Amino acid sequence: MPEELGLERMRALLAELGEPQRAFRAIHVVGTNGKSTTTRMAAALLRGEGLVAGAYTSPHVSSWAERIWVDGAEAEFEQAVARVRPAAEAIGATQFEVLTAAALTEFAERGVEAAVVEAGLGGRLDATNVLDAPVVVLTNVSLEHTDVLGDTREAIADEKLAVVRPGATVVLGQGEWEPKARDRDAAIVTVVAGSSLALAHAAVEAFLERRVDPTPAERVQLAGRLERRGDAPLEIWDGAHTLAGAGWLLPRIPTRRYVLMVSMLADKDVERFLAALSPLGGTLVATSSSNPRALPADELARAAAGRFGTVEIVPDPPAAVARARELAGPDGAVLVTGSLYLLADLYARPRT
Predict the structure, then answer these.
(1) What is the 3-class SS of 35-67, one letter each residue?
(2) Residue 144: is its pLDDT beyond 80?
(3) One-letter-per-residue 3-state SS of 309-320
(4) What is the pTM of this model?
(5) Do 53 and 195 reside in the same domain of the chain?
(6) Which residues contact 35 (CB under 8 A, 6 or more apart)?
(7) What is the pLDDT of residues 293-308, one digit of tens each?
(8) Which of the chain's ends, N or C, has fewer CB atoms near its CB within 10 Å?
(9) 211 and 268 belong to one structural domain
(10) Of 63-67, 142-146, 332-336, where does mean pLDDT reach its minimum?
(11) In this structure, are 300 and 192 located in the same domain?
């Protein structure tokens, strides 16, 4: 494991801050895809039931403040971080530990009654694994971060389900992990259809131990997650960046012929990702996000050339999305995908 992973610093930091994680009950969300949407949907359901609810998600797309929500709105992010910074600097906390401590402390300060907390990486050694959560959600498992989490889905599932405490309820989006959940001494294991809404609804009903109206979750929309940005042309932004992410995305978007606008990181499985997207349309605009690990647009274009009839290179993301809209025309459709860093760039530099 990389040196920065582990719980010792996080536990020390929370002790300095007065153990804020003990001030509220929590639902802990782990998995490969769909965690942020599930988290925010569950928080919306809790709020709909009259509770002061918090949500902590990562990564962000529109702004850092997107990560910490209290009572249906973004928290004062700078204030939340400033509250924990002196203790965090003294301990030498990592950025993610600082953000997690800021969220947990914000929840305690604001009187949150129930928080929904998304794990950052894996689960066992993730900074969020300081919660004694009565309900854990495992959305799904696919190969990711194999250098850290293991090179099989089974090993990765073990890392993620390590957040389960004895006696907890575990809500699964994939039934194959039920034996592993029971091995963690889960009291109840529930398997539901793997949609974010179904997972959030089942988790909140387990948390409150009663029936819950699902309607409030239906209005939840996250930046860069199946985000509909326009209608002429139809435009969808989604941060899918793995083969599993593409598999999750494809059945959830309207059936159309899309112009794809794509950027990917160089360490992703570019060939298989593009192959999965190729049935959506014959035109792709290759671009490159500002992330240092981004694949150059011309290299992405070469990888796409055998799968798309028309491939254009537009290195600047705002110019690339403008070109994709032009190619689609007002009656067409555009899909912007391949990297959350791409979407963050577009939020930071909107087309005028």
Answers:
(1) HHHHHHHHHHHHHHCCCCEEEECCCCCCCHHHH
(2) no
(3) CEEEECCCHHHH
(4) 0.86
(5) yes
(6) 29, 57, 118, 119, 139
(7) 999 999 999 999 989 9
(8) C
(9) no
(10) 142-146
(11) no
